[in-house]
Design goal:
single chain, 255 residues, alpha+beta, four-stranded antiparallel sheet, three-stranded mixed sheet, 11 helices, 14% strand, globular
Length: 255
């Protein structure tokens, strides 16, 4: 389960796509939001620890989990068999308020995933699905909770957390690339090749203004430590599609 990003432009017939797992998508957004000043170093560390745990099947062990349990519902017996057996697709039903903030997640597990499964296997399936629903919920709430710092509108927050083919505007694409650039620069972890790529890109005035302020910023105490070291390739993929979209003055579709 993940997010497929496709650059939408009429300037070229070539198709540019990049796929990210739900886990790495959350990680990348966390780092980017830190670069945009929406998350502190302490919040980054806590959120990266949370996603690492979720990916291993460990749910958050704090008061937030009580609220999450009220929102997520998993039915291990109520799946609709006809379409699901044919397509082997697990559907996650999401209920959101008028802004797009998730207030309910429901998963009806089809029998092909549970029939003939042992109690131990059923528990693993349940925990895996609960982790997937939780990371989707946390991603959505994080974006809405940081709106005052990022300036992202409701549609942008929704587009970045659903797979409905919504578009990310060029302005938001620039902000996402800029946030990551600032975060890894502050951590002194910017790949020299990526820095060269940025120098070759025709940036928007707002993007240029933010980058011009970078040298004045304090480095802070943020470090690309063991919580991120295994995910550097995802950073390159993130930059690749954001830079290409910026060069083509294009939007990005999320599915």
């Amino acid at each position: 389960m993940g997010y497929d990003l496709e650059i939408i432009t009429k300037k070229t017939k070539r198709k540019y796509q990049m796929w990210f797992s739900v886990w790495d998508w959350y990680r990348l957004l966390v780092i980017t939001l830190h670069g945009l000043g929406a998350l502190t170093s302490e919040e980054v560390e806590r959120k990266l620890m949370t996603v690492n745990g979720l990916q291993q099947g460990t749910l958050p062990d704090d008061e937030d989990q009580e609220e999450i349990d009220k929102i997520i519902e998993i039915d291990m017996e109520g799946g609709d068999e006809k379409d699901v057996i044919k397509n082997r697709v697990l559907e996650m039903n999401i209920d959101a308020d008028v802004k797009g903030r998730i207030r309910g997640v429901g998963i009806a597990v089809p029998r092909f995933m549970t029939e003939n499964a042992s109690e131990e296997e059923l528990e693993k399936i349940y925990k895996h699905l609960e982790s997937l629903a939780t990371i989707q919920l946390l991603t959505n709430h994080m974006l809405f909770d940081t709106q005052s710092a990022t300036g992202f509108g409701n549609k942008t927050c929704k587009a970045l957390t659903c797979n409905d083919g919504m578009m990310i505007s060029q302005q938001v694409v620039s902000a996402l690339g800029c946030g990551m650039f600032i975060a890894v620069s502050k951590a002194d972890a910017l790949d020299p090749k990526l820095e060269e790529s940025f120098n070759e890109v025709s940036l928007s005035d707002s993007f240029e203004a933010v980058l011009s302020e970078l040298h004045r910023m304090d480095a802070g105490d943020f470090e690309m430590d063991e919580l991120w070291v295994d995910h550097q390739e995802e950073t390159r993929k993130w930059f690749a599609i954001m830079i290409k979209a910026t060069m083509l003055d294009a939007r990005i579709k999320v599915t």
